[in-house]
Model the fold of this input.
Amino acid sequence: MTSKRPRPLTLRDVSEASGVSEMTVSRVLRGKGDVSETTRAKVQAAAKKMGYVPNRIAGALASSRVNLVGVIIPSLKNMVFPEVLSGISDRLSGTGLQPVVGVTDYRPEQEEKVLFEMLSWRPSGVIIAGLEHSEASRAMLARAGVPVVEIMDTDGDPIDAAVGISHRRAGREMAEAILKEGYRRIGFLGTKMPLDYRARKRFEGFTAHLAKQGYEIVDQEFYSGGSALKKGREMTEAILTRTPGIDFLYYSNDMIGAGGLLYLLEKGADIPGDIGLAGFNGVELLDGLPRRLATMDACRREIGEKAADIIAARCALPDPLEETGPIVTLTPTLDTGETLLRK
Done:
């Protein structure tokens, strides 16, 4: 890939797009001065559409950068992302670059705010979770004038570089393993749906493979909140009460899967004889369960490491934007644990 990234936007660009003077644009974007509401709205709309972010480094050239790398993730409560951050931090250590973290809680409008604030300090690069962003966020990332690495997912079109796994493939492979063991009445349980695009893609890959083999899920249970053991117990009870006879439960993540496992063990269920279970992410929590949950490793630390390596390598070049970055697709590993394979 050899296309050159576009240059950062300036006040003049916003001035030309909105049809008002640079001085007026500056007043609007700094929230200063006496400007009519009509003009203010016109300038703000033009800036948002273009992806313009003001430079907060007072007195510095527009091309100046600080040694910060903005890292934007959906959650710190999810056990997945601390390991990603650890990989990023370790790889940036000694490079002169320092990661700074922002959290979006899976909300596009919050991502816009976090991204705006981070880019206004002119970081050296951005690492951001996911490929799906609002139009305003995509515009800001595209015109940031720094290397951008979207992480965790490669099922889509990245703005610049990307490091992750194919979640659709992960869903297909899990469906294949479940059917191979003879399970046929399968239920799906997911949290943060539909805001968690990666979980949605696994669900799409999972159901597509089932359909290809002539099967479909018999029931599903979604919850818009976060992941927790208690929620996993509640969701498992709800789906099994509503649809008796389910012989396999596929969870969107290990936390709710672990809650489901504990619930079923308390009920004396024969696992995996009568009912099998699987989650996703391969978190260390599984090591402490009474029975090891089947799961799939999401390559979390490696994703963080490779994303940091890309940023550091690009920042070391005379022109970090000479070319767009690579797309790195990692391969997750299925761990059958003790809840999938029937003896």
